[in-house]
Each structure stands twice: as C-alpha cells, then as structure tokens.
Design a protein that fits this description.
Aspartate Aminotransferase, domain 1, Aspartate Aminotransferase, domain 2, 7-stranded mixed sheet, 14 helices, 12 strands
C-alpha cells in the first residue's frame, strides 16, 4: 500500500507558513509579531448582535448566497464608500472569509492550463488555489525597497493563455497601496486583453497618512470585468469569524456562488447579521482602527530600526517588511526559525511568497496589529539580541 495518499494536486504545495510560525510562537512562548491577527476584538455592539442572533434562532443554514440583511449592508457599504451601485440579490455573495472568496473565484473562473497573473510576494493561498485549479501563475514582482508595480513587467507577464489577474491592494505583505496610475496600468492591460481581474481588498480601510484605497472596479471600463473580494475580519478585528464577500457583475458573482456551494455551501448564520450590524451601525470603527494602527506602525518601524532592521514604512495593511541580508543568514526562514531562541520573537519569512527566490530570500514580515505594549516589548527584545548569524 502506498504510504502517501496525498492527491497530486497538493503535491509541492507546502503547509501554510502562518500555521508553522504561530505554532512556533506558542511552543516557545515567543511574542508573535508574525501572523496578522489583533490582540483585541472589534466593536462590542457587533459581538452583542451575534449573541442576539444566536439566542433568537439564527442557527440553521443561511441561504448559500448569504442572508439578505448582510447582502444589503454590503451593497450599502460599496455605495457609501465608492459610489458603486449593487443589486444585493445578484451582485453580492457572502463567503467564508476572503480565503474562500479567492478559492471560489479561481475554481469558478479558471480552467486547467489557464494562466493567472499575480503580484509577488503573494499571499500563500493564491499559490495553493492556482495550483489546485491546474492553472499556471505568472508572477509580477514588486521589488524592494519601494515595492511598486512595474507596468512593463505586468504587460510582459500577460500571454495568449492568460485568463485573469489576481490583484491585492492594499498589499500583503509589502504594505504597498497601489496608486491610481498603477491601477490604470492594470485596467489598460485588462481591457486590451479582455481579462477578468480578481481583487483582494481585505485591507481596504487600513490605509495610512495621505494614501487612498481606490477599488479597481471604479475605474472606467472595469466594473464589468472586476470581481472584488473583501471581509469583516481585518476592518472590524474579527479575523476568526471568517465572514467575507464577493461583489461585481452578476456573471462573475454567479461563478463564485457556483463553486462556493460545493465548498462550504453557506457561512456562519448568526455571524452574518452581526456583520451587517457592523457595516451599517459601526461605519466609523475601521477609520479609528486605522488611526490606531498608524501609531503602532510607527512604533514598530522605529523599534525595528533601533534593532538594525530598517523597514520601508508601509502605506497600508498590518505589516512591515525588512531585508535581513546584512545579518549573514542564509535566508529569512533560517533567521525566523532561530529568532525565538535569539530574541523571544516570531516573524514570517517572506520567501514562501515568491517565485523569484533571489528577490524574496532575505525578506521578513512583521505584524503591528498587536497592542502597543507588546510591540514595544518585542522590539526591545530584538534590539537587545544578537541577530547576526
């Protein structure tokens, strides 16, 4: 009997680095500046809404497309923030987090052999799902230290078998927020080559300083070819709830629903009305969260610099990236595996998010969605440690 029964579609896809590094933090008692989950929950009124839903009987299957109240709240959110008018019955589907949204979008829209252009470093579920679809990824590298989109490289990555572009802005892990000019370059290529664009916008409200998040769907000619994904997890600090959504033209949303019905079928029934409450009744909460995160970003970046780990100041998200090549380590993974013993801190090696290993070999990601005291203690430990190989 074959001792390995792993399907070929999973062969070569490594376990997610986030689980590995968070387990390392738990095992060693190190401060987890790796995985991006907050230390504090979101608005109490939203939790109370979930409790009320549990107690009032919202505990059976929700409609696969999502409960009407949440779909309507998502439509209002898109109109209020971006001027996008959605039909909540045809152009919105609720997903089990943005992770399922990505999976269902790719499974619903991509055939084996199709090519998908993706910005690298990429969130690792992109790699896994493109592989599971039997598709081919075509990475476009955001290169250190500025991590900007090269429009010529994007255009060069598109070939005759390209079906879609998978875009992420604000971008994890670099913290880049794509400018209107960069987004227009994406739009120009998509329109010219008749491509679908799947946009992961989970950090849409977590932008800093004078930077602006612009949904690609708002650019001329892009609504009809853009599938927009987001979730409540990041904007409202409920990452464990896994309630997300996909919006766009009915043909693209229908493709997501066609795949989703065979994945989870539906998503947490009592959490959906609570997320609707968040969108409708706590609209200012993400703005306050972004202000707080900006302060914590500054605390982390300054502390990393004191430890000899200079980071580019991120424009959005939870994350800052440092290049550790000057410390003498073979790569970021060996550095991160040694870090708990050296400094009592855990970080994420970015090389798992690159095809271009030369570009990503020494990049390390740090999360600042933690409480200020924890960040301060983490960077104090880093500054006191010998981080050289």
């Amino acid at each position: 009997m074959n001792s390995s029964r792993l399907a070929r579609r999973l062969d070569g896809i490594p376990p997610t680095v986030f689980s590995e590094m968070s387990a390392l933090a738990a095992r060693t008692g190190a401060i987890n500046l790796g995985q991006g989950f907050p230390d504090v929950d979101g608005p109490p009124s939203v939790i109370a809404s979930a409790v009320a839903a549990l107690q009032s009987g919202a505990n059976q299957y929700a409609p696969g497309i999502g409960v009407p109240a949440l779909r309507q709240a998502i439509a209002r959110h898109q109109q209020r923030h971006y001027g996008l008018e959605l039909d909540p019955d045809r152009e919105v589907v609720v997903t089990t987090g943005c992770t399922e949204g990505i999976a269902a979008a790719l499974l619903g829209l991509i055939d084996p052999g199709d090519e998908v252009v993706v910005l690298e470093p990429y969130y690792d579920s992109y790699l896994a799902m493109i592989e599971m679809c039997g598709a081919v990824r075509r990475p476009v590298t955001l290169r250190a230290p500025e991590f900007r989109l090269d429009a010529d490289a994007l255009r060069a990555a598109v070939g005759p078998r390209t079906r879609a572009i998978l875009l992420n802005s604000p971008h994890n892990p670099t913290g880049t927020v794509l400018t209107r000019a960069e987004l227009q370059a994406v739009a120009d290529v998509a329109i010219e080559r008749d491509l679908v664009v799947i946009t992961d916008e989970v950090y849409e409200h977590l932008v800093f300083d004078s930077h602006e998040h612009v949904p690609l769907a708002t650019l001329p000619g892009m609504w009809e070819r853009t599938l927009t994904l987001s979730s409540a997890g990041k904007s409202y600090s409920f990452t464990g709830w896994k309630v997300g959504w996909a919006t766009g033209p009915a043909s693209l949303v229908g493709a997501v629903l066609a795949a989703k019905q065979w994945l989870t079928f539906t998503s947490g029934s009592p959490l959906q009305p609570a997320v609707a409450h968040a969108l409708d009744h706590e609209p200012d909460w993400p703005t306050a969260l972004a202000r707080s995160l900006q302060d914590r970003r500054d605390l982390l970046v300054a502390g990393l610099a004191d430890a000899g780990l200079v980071a580019r100041v991120p424009e959005g998200t939870y994350f800052a990236t440092t290049d550790i090549s000057h410390l003498g380590w073979e790569d970021g993974r060996s550095f991160c595996l040694a870090l708990p013993e050296r400094a009592g801190v855990v970080a994420i090696p970015n090389q798992a998010f690159y095809d271009d290993q030369d570009a990503g070999r020494h990049m390390v990601r740090w999360a600042f969605c933690k409480e200020p005291d924890l960040i301060a203690e983490g960077v104090r430990r880093l500054a006191a440690a010998d981080l050289t190989r």
